[in-house]
Structures are given as C-alpha cells and as structure tokens.
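Ticket #4471: structure export looks truncated?
Reporter: QA, pipeline team
Priority: medium

Steps to reproduce: submit the single chain below to the structure queue and open the exported record.
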Amino acid sequence: MRRHRHNLKPEQHLKLSAYLKQNPVMELVYRFKQKLCYPLMEKSLNQKKCRELAPRLLRMICGTAPAGAGAVSSARQYAARLEG
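Actual output as written to the record:
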C-alpha cells in the first residue's frame, strides 16, 4: 500500500488486490490516497496550477474528516484564503 500502483510489479499488484478485497475499508483508504497523490505527481505543476489544486485537495480532505469541526473549519479558511 505504500507504493503507487504504477510502481507495482505484477505479483505485488495481485497481492494488493487480494488484500484490498479482504479489507474493503482499506480499499477505500487506498483509493482515496491514490486520488490525492496522482495530481501532485504532475511534472508540469507551476505556481498557478498549485494554487488551483490546493483548494481542491483540501476540499477532498475536509469532506472525509470526522466530526473534528475545528480542523475542518481552519482548513476551509485556509482554502478560502488561497482562492481569494
């Protein structure tokens, strides 16, 4: 689970798939991690693209946060400052 799916060998991919089938919650976590990581791996990220990407990533993270309203609201304030 620590590697990106494009770096897995075929046998590692099979093992990971079997593991994720046995653990549906971990499959959700793994898929979410992949969604967060892949935009950050773009080679052509400049300052403008990063400013556009940061609020989107923060919204993804805040949307999954547990009932910790303080952390969510401070992240939303940070995202609003980046957008503004």
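Status: closed, not a bug. The export was complete when the record was re-opened. Leaving a note from the reviewer for reference: The chain has a mean pLDDT of 77.
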